[in-house]
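re: ur question from earlier - yeah i can do the single chain one, its not a big deal. heres the input i used so u can compare w yours
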Amino acid sequence: MKSFIEEARHKQIVAAAISVLAREGYASASLSRIAKEAGISKSIITYHFSGKDEMFEAVYRSVESSASSYIAPLMETEEGPSGMIATYIRNQIGYMKEHRDELLAIGQLAMSHGRQEGPDYMATSAQEEARLLADLMAEGQRRGIFRDFDRRVMAAAISKAIESALTEWAYRPETDLDAYGDELIALFLRGMERREDGSS
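and the output i got, formated as tokens:
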């Protein structure tokens, strides 16, 4: 278990890595550059992390945990699967809107950082997201709210649509993410919900 000081140092390094990735890109995110950003020596980073793989995984996990802590309580206030899926879409986008550096940093990792060995933590996270959405869709189908459809395909489509919205915003900051999110919610809920005549 990390001490308070170790935990604080860990967070300091992760924050510095996020800043460098977001501002300067993956190619510039060396341990030396991140150490300079944090105002520490490179040896301190290598004391806390075995290398760039472990440090970048910590960056991704930090953003993932922060986003989950932000979104999960909001979803819990919704009673049905439609509201929970809408809240998920709206607040995945909303979180990143308020955390631009984090979005840009994990975007850099997704595009440029390949692990030579060990688990693919980004793929694992995507699978967890797909399971969450698919479970909500299954509940909607059981209740007769949603029509019959391939939940795996729909979950992947939602995930990629959110990713596309954030990519658009990363390159075009003037993009209205609130309006983008509302359109995605309308599109997917209309596509999933059973029609009033009971048809699919």
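The domain at 60-192 is CATH 1.10.357.10 (Tetracycline Repressor; domain 2). not sure if urs matches, ping me
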